[in-house]
Amino acid sequence: NQELYDYSLRYLVQREDGGAILVAEQFYEYEVCSADPRTGTQTCTYYYYYNDIIVVNIDPDGRIRWSKKIPKLQVSRNDGGFFLSFAFAVSGNTLYFMFNDHPKNLNVQNGGSYKYMNNTKRSVAVLVSMDMSGQQVRQTMFRNQDLKTYLRPKLFMQVSEKKMYLYGQKKSTFKLA
C-alpha cells in the first residue's frame, strides 16, 4: 500500500510457464552545489543512491503472485556509483543477487534498520538467493578487504545457467571470478 518511487526496471525474466519475474532497483541521484562567497567559485557534489531491490512474480495470466523486497542501502559521491547496484543471475528456480553491503546488515532481523554501505573498503560482498516462493537467504560471499578487491556488480555476465563472471577492482588491479 506504499507508493514506489524512483525504481528502475533492471531485468524481466520469462518463466517457462509463460509468467515473468520483474526485478527493479530504487535508484536516484542528486547534486548539492555551493558558491564561495569571496571568489564566487561554485563547487558541486554528486550523490548516487542505489537502494532496495523489488522482485515481482507475475503469473501467466498477468496477475501478481507475490512481490518481495531485498533491503539494500548504498550511497556514494562523485564517482557515478562505481561499486554500487547489484549483479543478477538465474539458475533453475533460484534467483541470485550479489552486491556490496555494510557488514552489520547481515544480522538485521525483520523490522530492524539497515545501515548505508558508503565505504567500499569496509564492505562485504553479499549473496542473496531467492526461490520461486519468494523466500530469501542472505549470506556473505567475501569481505572485500580480505581479497584486496571490491566487487563491481554492474560489470557481470551470466554466460550459462551455472556460470557467470564477476568483476572486482581496486585501483588499477582487477580480478575475475
In short:
The chain has 177 residues and is mostly beta strands. The chain has one helix spanning 144-147, and strands at residues 7-14, 20-35, 42-58, 64-70, 74-77, 87-91, 94-101, 124-131, 136-143, 150-160, 163-170, 173-176.
Task: Give a structural overview.
The protein is globular. The strands form three sheets. Strands 1, 2, 3, 4 and 5 form a five-stranded antiparallel β-sheet that branches. A four-stranded antiparallel β-sheet has the order 6-7-8-9. Strands 10-11-12 form a three-stranded antiparallel β-sheet. With 177 residues, the protein is an all-beta fold. The protein is built from one helix and twelve strands, in the order βββββββββαβββ. The model has no long low-confidence stretch (mean pLDDT 92).
